[in-house]
TrEMBL record:
Keyword Oxidoreductase assigned: yes
Lineage: Bacteria, Pseudomonadati, Pseudomonadota, Gammaproteobacteria, Oceanospirillales
Any Gene Ontology biological process: amino acid metabolic process
Family, as annotated: Belongs to the Glu/Leu/Phe/Val dehydrogenases family.
InterPro entries found in the cross-reference section: Aminoacid_DH-like_N_sf, Glu/Leu/Phe/Val/Trp_DH, Glu/Leu/Phe/Val/Trp_DH_C, Glu/Leu/Phe/Val/Trp_DH_dimer, Glu/Leu/Phe/Val_DH_AS, Glu/Phe/Leu/Val/Trp_DH_bac/arc, NAD(P)-bd_dom_sf
Keyword tags: NAD, Nucleotide-binding, Oxidoreductase
Organism: Halomonas beimenensis
Superkingdom, natural source: Bacteria
Active-site feature positions: K80
One Pfam family matching this protein: ELFV_dehydrog_N
Name recorded for this polypeptide: Leucine dehydrogenase
Length: 347
């Protein structure tokens, strides 16, 4: 299948394939839109089963970054990069430097950053061969965006709970967190501090047990999390967590999490609406990390300004939820419409 015929192709500006025989690099960079500025998006390193699977992921994720940056009011477009490799076994400094050269060949139209399978340390290696890297830290402080992503999701969840459950207080709120990696763990800790009662799961059982003991949370096997008797379901692992089958099993009345591309198919949003479950558009909720990375690139960085910007995610969602309620629609297409108004002036 050609890129132009791919079902996830959405008039992307550029889709670039790169390889390096010496290091084993096989990569794809997708630039979705640059109307608001250069395309920023993380580098995902994952052992995709096929090139088509990798292309599907990078096309979807880059589109999501355009919408994310627009609704976060950032002067950035949307892009993404993937390397087809096992990050535990295949990743090497040589491969990362080759990736940096590929990024550099785009002349600043794409800015890379860490994502699943890559780290801040990896970004520093990539920065040896290109200047177009974000998330390297500021003023000697780590550039890890995960605490900022988690805080944005926390702000989003508070908005969703107000609109979906008609409550402001999180004390006693029952939340199921699916995935307790960097972002999921930070989110769980914030929710615990706010008085929420947690049910946690992860494929990494050791990490799950440690966090469960730290927070006094219930832990379950991955497949059981969607059946948990909770108020909020927070998908914080890989994408496509919300399939029609999962939606039919959910007992939560609100969905708000950190994972990208949570809807396995667009029509799942209407299925959630039909069941009376308030869905929080993922690219709005999880924008905290990209907001932090964008501020790192400015000359007037102040942490308090960054946090204020991130807390604006809640206000953006207040607008989306209110508009969705007025129009009797899912928040997902409402968010898409609002984003397009910001990066497609004629829309």
């Amino acid at each position: 299948m050609s890129v132009f015929d791919h079902p996830e192709f959405d008039h992307h500006r550029q889709v670039v394939y790169g390889s390096d025989e010496a290091s084993g690099l096989r990569a794809i960079i997708a630039i979705h839109d640059t109307y608001r500025g250069p395309a920023l998006g993380g580098l995902r390193i994952y052992p995709y089963a096929s090139e088509d699977e990798a292309l599907t992921d990078v096309l979807r994720l880059s589109r999501g970054m355009t919408y994310k940056s627009a609704l976060a009011d950032l002067p950035l477009g949307g892009g993404k990069a993937v390397i087809i490799a096992d990050p535990r076994r295949d990743k090497s400094p040589e491969m990362l430097r080759a990736m940096g050269r590929l990024v550099d060949s785009l002349g600043g139209h794409y800015i890379t950053a860490e994502d699943s399978g890559s780290s801040e340390a990896d970004m520093r290696v990539i920065a040896e061969t290109t200047d177009h890297v974000g998330g390297l830290g500021h003023g000697g402080v780590s550039g890890d965006p995960s605490p900022f992503t988690a805080h944005g999701v926390f702000c989003a969840l508070r908005s969703a709970v107000r609109h979906g459950l008609d409550r402001d207080d999180l004390t006693g709120l029952r939340v199921a967190v699916q995935g307790v990696g960097h972002v999921g763990a930070h989110l769980a800790r914030q929710l615990h501090a706010a008085g929420a009662r947690l049910v946690l799961t992860d494929v990494d059982r050791d990490a799950l047990i440690r966090l469960g003991e730290e927070l006094g949370a219930e832990t379950v096997v991955p497949d059981a999390i969607v059946d948990a008797d909770v108020d909020v379901f927070a998908p914080c692992a890989m994408g496509a967590a919300l399939t029609p089958e999962v939606v039919d099993r959910l007992r939560a009345r609100v969905v708000c999490g950190a994972a990208n591309n949570q809807l396995a198919r667009p029509e799942v949003a209407d299925r959630l609406l039909a069941r009376g479950i308030l869905y929080t558009p993922d690219y709005v909720a999880n924008a905290g990390g990209v907001i932090e990375i964008a501020w790192q690139r400015r000359g007037d960085y102040r942490r308090e300004d960054v946090m204020s910007h991130i807390e604006g995610i809640g206000r953006t969602l207040d607008e989306i939820f209110a508009r969705a309620a007025r129009e009797g629609r899912s928040p997902a297409p409402v968010a898409d419409d609002l984003a397009r108004e910001r990066f497609q002036p004629s829309a």
